[in-house]
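Hi V.,

You were right to ask for the full record rather than a summary. Here it is.
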Amino acid sequence: MSKISLIIGLGNPGKEYAQTRHNAGFWFVERLAEQYGISLKTDPKFNGISGRGNIEGQDIRLLLPTTFMNLSGKSVVPFAKFYNIPPEAMLIAHDELDMNPGIIRLKTGGGHGGHNGLRDIVPHTGPNFHRLRIGIGHPGSKERVSGHVLSKASNQEQNLMDDALHHALTQVKLLVEGNTQQAMNQINAYKPN
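Predicted structure:
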């Protein structure tokens, strides 16, 4: 397994989106940066906010695209290309409609699953990156999806998501060291209280 050297969080830029469900990927990377003392700075060259630091002895870059979700590839693709990071060394954290709040899953490869951020990345990188899927729940009908992802979760749902994110953060050492299968076992076995 290749070690992860780039961790990307997907979301929408701006204060009005900061607490919305679609920004679950941002939350993960922001907490990771905080946990490891990595400062995130605006990176206009790559339409994002990025940082670089030591995570469990590994040199890791962090990226939050500021392009809006459906244009995430405009940030991720040139960033990965410039730093010569192959898809196998990338972890993308993103919200997942098809999983309830409190559920978190790590997987490698696969399609975009209807996720607009991934839809803009996969054609340029191929599917072989790692994904940290953060459950946000489904509103029940297709028509309500947009409003759902762009609104705040209830306190109860937010607590479930926060706990799941906390659990994923405890497994980062395994991830960055390339023990992807072990990390997958630990993360995917997580059950909300």
